[in-house]
Recover the amino acids of this structure.
């Protein structure tokens, strides 16, 4: 059990974040730092309603213009989830762009996720590029992160996805990667609950300490390579859903009706490993229930009431039968024994701060970017 349990329990009076986040801070009214941060981020990144149509139209025109003569004018990532599916719909149907869809097959796709991707791209007539990761290499990296004993077990997948998106953009000479990440559903996440998606130095150090196989083919990028993508190739990542009114429930209804998409039970549950990691490993080992962050974000954006969020939080994080099946499947797929898996869960909890990272450099870069946003207005 996490040492957070010895801290006096407290929950935000506005959202549902609580002291399971070791760094949570409350103001005099009982409102947490995540609520205040959401307000700041929303003000900085959400395009004002009066400007949305004009700015989105101008952006789409720019993307089309720079994509002339190329097979694609933008790159999008697809996972079979809500955000990436709705992004594909907006990019193709509403903006009339010519995207290449990119998917990372890390060996953990659910059948429903694969079906959602196939239905979506067929209906929208979008080409798909799938990068199939070397399973034995990736399995070793995932086990290394279990041995590393931080809550960041999904970092190897998320970093590889970003690496493949940048690589495909550079390969086709495309300047725009359009993302499904957005403020209204994804602005709240404690840094110690999930760090390192861009930080290969962190990944490399965990693997150096606990990995057994060389990372010969794992898709990745260093800080130097990232700067090369950003400043030499001038590749720009754009969170399109921040340019529109993104109502998640309405988006789900639309893609279900128009594309035949089916819901998979929870945020990021299109991946079997993610579903198991969030529903079993995080709550059991780290006292982390990511639904607190996900629902709090919807509360802050006005898409969910606090009362409803608390009701939903009281429900099981995953159906008991599915959780047991996932546990057996994950242990077998990782080639672990029952006792080996339990031994991994018994390792004392750590955070990314126990490893070599580029955290300070990224924080400095964020400050520079945010200052630039404020100056631009």
């Amino acid at each position: 059990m996490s040492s957070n349990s010895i801290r006096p329990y407290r929950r935000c009076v506005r959202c549902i974040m609580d002291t399971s986040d070791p760094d949570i801070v409350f103001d005099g009214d009982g409102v947490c730092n995540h609520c205040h941060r959401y307000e700041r981020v929303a003000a900085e990144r959400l395009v004002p309603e009066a400007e949305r149509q004009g700015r989105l139209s101008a952006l789409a025109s720019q993307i089309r213009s720079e994509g002339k003569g190329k097979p694609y004018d933008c790159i999008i990532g697809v996972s079979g989830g809500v955000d990436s599916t709705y992004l594909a719909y907006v990019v193709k149907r509403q903006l009339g762009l010519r995207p290449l869809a990119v998917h990372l097959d890390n060996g953990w796709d659910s059948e429903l996720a694969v079906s959602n991707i196939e239905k979506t791209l067929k209906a929208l007539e979008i080409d798909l590029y799938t990068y199939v990761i070397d399973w034995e290499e990736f399995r070793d990296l995932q086990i290394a992160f279990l041995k590393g004993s931080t809550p960041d077990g999904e970092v190897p997948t998320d970093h590889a996805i970003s690496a493949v998106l940048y690589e495909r953009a550079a390969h086709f000479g495309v300047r725009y990667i359009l993302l499904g990440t957005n403020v209204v559903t994804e602005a709240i996440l404690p840094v110690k609950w999930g760090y390192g998606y861009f930080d290969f130095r962190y990944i490399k150090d965990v693997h150096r300490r606990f990995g057994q196989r060389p990372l010969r083919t794992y898709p990745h990028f260093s800080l130097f390579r990232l700067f090369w993508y950003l400043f030499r190739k001038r590749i720009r990542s754009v969170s399109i859903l921040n340019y529109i009114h993104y109502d998640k429930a309405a988006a789900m209804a639309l893609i279900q009706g128009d594309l035949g998409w089916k819901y998979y039970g929870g945020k990021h549950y299109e991946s079997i490993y993610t579903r198991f990691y969030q529903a079993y490993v995080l709550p059991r080992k780290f006292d982390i229930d990511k639904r607190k962050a996900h629902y709090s974000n919807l509360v802050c954006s006005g898409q969910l009431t606090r009362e409803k969020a608390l009701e939903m939080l009281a429900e099981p994080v995953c159906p008991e039968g599915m959780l047991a099946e996932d546990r057996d499947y994950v242990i077998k797929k990782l080639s672990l024994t029952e006792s080996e898996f339990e031994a991994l869960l018994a390792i004392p909890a750590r955070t990314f701060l126990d490893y070599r990272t580029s955290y300070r450099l990224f924080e400095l870069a964020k400050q520079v970017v945010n200052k630039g946003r404020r100056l631009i207005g």
Q: What stands out?
A: The first strand starts at residue 74 and ends at 77. Residues 49-66 form the longest helix (18 residues).
